[in-house]
Specification:
CATH architecture of chain B: 3-Layer(aba) Sandwich
Largest interface: A-B, 58 and 66 residues
Shape of chain A: flat
Oligomer: heterodimer
CATH class of chain B: Alpha Beta
CATH superfamily of chain B: Alpha/Beta hydrolase fold, catalytic domain
Number of strands of chain B: 12
Number of helices of chain A: 8
Helix content of chain B: 40-55%
Number of strands of chain A: 1
Number of helices of chain B: 15
Strand content of chain A: under 5%
Order of helices and strands of chain B: HEEEEEHEHEHEHHHHHHHEEEHHEHH
Radius of gyration of chain B: 22 Å
Number of domains of chain A: 1
Largest sheet of chain A: none
Largest sheet of chain B: 8 strands, mixed
CATH topology of chain B: Rossmann fold
Strand content of chain B: 15-25%
Helix content of chain A: over 70%
Distance between the termini of chain A: 47 Å
Structural class of chain B: alpha/beta
Structural class of chain A: mainly alpha
Radius of gyration of chain A: 31 Å
Strand order of the largest sheet of chain B: 1-2-6-3-7-8-11-12
Order of helices and strands of chain A: HHHHHHHHE
Amino acid sequence: MSSGFLKAWVDQAGAFQEMLARLVEQSTAAVPPSMASPLLAPWKNFVDTLGMGDFNPGQMFPGMPALGVSREYQETAARLLDLSKQFQQRYAEFAQQNATIMQDAFHVLKKRFDEAPPAGKTPAELYDAWIDCAEGTYAQAAHSERFARLLAELCNISSAFKVERGKLTEQIARHLDLPSRAEVDTLHRQVHALTTAIRAATASSAASGTAASGSATSGSAASRSAASGAAASGATRASKPPRKPRKRAKK
Amino acid sequence: MNASTESLAEMLQSAAAMQESGRAVLRSMLGMGDVEVGTSEKHCVLSEDKIRLYRYSALARSANLKPVLICYAMVNRPYLLDLQPDRSFIRELLLSGLDVYLLDWGYPDGADRFSGFEAYVDGYLRRCIEFVLREHVIDSLTLLGVCQGGTMSLCYAALEPEQIAQLITMVTPVDFKTPENLLSKWAQHIDVELLTQSGNVSGDFLNLVYLSLMPFRLTQQKYVNLLQMQGDRVQLENFMRMEKWIFDSPDQPAAAFREFIQWFFQENRLVRGELTLAGRPVRLKNLTAPLLNIYASKDHLVPPSASIPLGAHIGSQDYQSLEVDAGHIGLYVGSKTRKSVPAAVTAWLQARR
């Protein structure tokens, strides 16, 4: 593998990084027209027809509250749109950061090969050398505060998007008279609270029964066990003789 | 031919050999079917909601030691400890005459969404331990915690020290904020309240996080290495067992996951002595039982620096740590460690009978 070949790789990686940098700038300014969702295209045409100039959903009526009977939907939709935009921006930054890592890794590999020419190495050994460089460079970046913050921002925006999407689904489910997530959650909460209460009550009654009978060794683990044991908890003791377990169905 | 032409010819030959090996691998993988995991005989002795407590069938004369209850992590499946007959930590313990129980957390679903960390430690784990104590009519047992399960075991043992005769922790995070802990660095800025607001945390998401710790090795190199296995059926099956285990990650119950990240990763409550469960403080100083702390020197998930501080926080006078030259998973299945680690565990227990 010649250093000329590596230089070409490094140059290409640099060009790719520049492209990502431009993408970040565009994303920061607004949603680039080329990246507008197909759903927005009819609106753009409509606004263009009215002669209202450049279509920019994010800046048409900034800060304007949603009005009318569909305001709740509009607000949810606006938040989803805003979160998508935020995600796009952060993701472009993240991709740019990863491109920089790759470029740095190529530099490290080139330096290594400049110092010790790789003549005689097998493709597998060259590949392993590349992985070592890439992983080393990545680890250095991944431990940085900037990387952690960017990763967390991506995660947090995705989480927020999921929450908003859930609200929209909730509204639609209610309109269609379908059981909604909120209803199921309420049921789960009730079952959870009831189970906890039953466990506590049964354990308390078992404890008082044990204390009254005085049959167990006082203060031993066995007596404590009777108080909060499996029978008191709703746990099921397997009664069948040992057998080979059946394969459990996956999630 | 000059030197560079010779070198090029060698490279091309080598590349052709790799290609041929890759074809052999693909041929062997066709029709391979599913691989079997968790092969040691066991039976379920207790079940509650999603959790199961298994007891393994004896494979040797009893060593007359206290029963060992293994508390595995919730984030992965416990069959890693019994992957195949010749790579089984549990089988080695059984062959030493130990009576082994395994707590399997199962696959939590929406019904478990509101179960907090306390429900798992002071609820399920407690009931499993008390079940074993009752079965054997004993006051204490040996608790062996693995990874996150080790942290849970430490919490329980701190709450109920008299029930734990010996405690063994394996690749267990204790101090969650050490400079080498990449997972912890990433967790600091995550809004875990928001993350869990829309339900359980998917196992796929966690897998992506784990892969991101070493993306080049874990998503590329290992598959390139796979192509060099020359179609060796046994090696391929070993690979597939591990592949199956790696991506068999249960979803995490929202409340328990949120609390685990906040309390341990973000606030480091365990070593700061600020953790409370079931209204009681979890003080590591309460741990007075003999304790064996096993960690892996090449662990990229739980770096040694996260496990080593345990000795400084406990009250036990009988503390021993064991550094193993392996990674987080290699500790159990590595060719050098799969027998030496269980042997060390058994020897440690026998010395404290």
